[in-house]
Amino acid sequence: MAKSSEAVGWAARDPSGILSPFKFPRRANGEDDVTVKVLYCGVCHSDLHTLKNEWGFTMYPIVPGHEIVGVVTETGKNVEKFKVGDRVGVGVIVDSCRTCDICHQDLENYCPKVIFAYNSIHPDGTKTQGGYSDVMVVDQAYVLRFPDNLPPDAGAPLLCAGITVYSPMKYYGMTEPGKHLGVVGLGGLGHLAVKFGKAFGLKVTLISTSPKKEAEAINKLGADSFLLSTDPSKMKDAMGTMDYILDTVSAVHPLAPLLGLLKLNGKLVNVGLPDKPLELPMFPICLGRKLVGGSNIGGMKETQEMLDFCAEHNIVSDIELIHMDDINGAMERLAKSDVKYRFVIDVGNSSL
Ligand SMILES: [Zn+2]
Ligand SMILES: [Zn+2]
Question: Would you say residue 331 has pLDDT above 80?
Answer without folding.
Answer: yes
